[in-house]
Design brief:
Helix content: 25-40%
Shape: extended
Strand content: under 5%
Order of helices and strands: HHHH
Radius of gyration: 27 Å
Structural class: mainly alpha
Distance between the termini: 83 Å
Largest sheet: none
Number of helices: 4
Number of strands: 0
Length: 152
C-alpha cells in the first residue's frame, strides 16, 4: 500500500499519463482570458515571474477588482494581482513587487507616470470635463404633442 509506513519507492509507472498539455484558452475565448494571457509581469524577481506565469498557464490567475494597499506607503495603489508593493515603491526601493525581497528584477518597471497618481492637474481636467458636459444644450423637444401623423 502507498500509505504503508516506510514504503516510499513505487514499483510501477504513473497510471494516467497526459498525452497533450493543458491550454487555458482552448474553450474559453473571452476577452478576460485574452487580457490575462497578454499581461506582462514586470517588476518581479525570476521566481515570482515563474509563479505568475504558472498561474496564467493553468487558469489560476485572478485579477484584482479594486486596488490593494501597499505595505510600504500604505496607500491603495497596488493594481496588480498577488503583489504587495505598488510600482513606485518597488521601483524606488529596487525590490520585487510580489515578494518584497531585494533580488534581481527580470523585467524592470516602465517609469511612465500614470494619470491616476496624485496629479492635481488631472483632477482639474476631470472637473473641467464634467462642467463642460453640464453646459451642453440640446434642442430636442420631447413633450411635443403636435404630431402630423395619428398614432394607432
Amino acid at each position: 500500500m502507498s500509505t504503508q509506513k516506510g514504503n516510499v519507492a513505487r514499483s510501477r509507472p504513473q497510471k494516467h499519463q497526459n498525452t497533450f498539455s493543458f491550454k487555458n484558452d482552448k474553450f474559453d475565448k473571452s476577452v478576460h482570458t485574452k487580457k490575462i494571457n497578454a499581461k506582462l509581469h514586470d517588476g518581479v524577481c525570476q521566481h515570482c515571474k515563474e509563479v505568475l506565469e504558472w498561474r496564467v498557464k493553468y487558469s489560476k490567475y485572478k485579477p484584482l477588482s479594486k486596488p490593494k494597499k501597499c505595505v510600504k506607503c500604505l496607500q491603495k495603489t497596488v493594481k496588480d494581482s498577488y503583489h504587495i508593493i505598488c510600482r513606485p515603491c518597488a521601483c524606488e526601493l529596487e525590490v520585487c513587487a510580489k515578494c518584497g525581497k531585494k533580488e534581481e528584477i527580470v523585467i524592470p518597471i516602465n517609469k511612465e507616470p500614470e494619470k491616476t497618481e496624485n496629479n492635481p492637474n488631472w483632477r482639474r481636467s476631470c472637473r473641467r470635463n464634467e462642467e463642460s458636459d453640464d453646459d451642453l444644450e440640446f434642442d430636442i423637444a420631447l413633450d411635443d404633442t403636435e404630431d402630423d401623423s395619428p398614432v394607432d
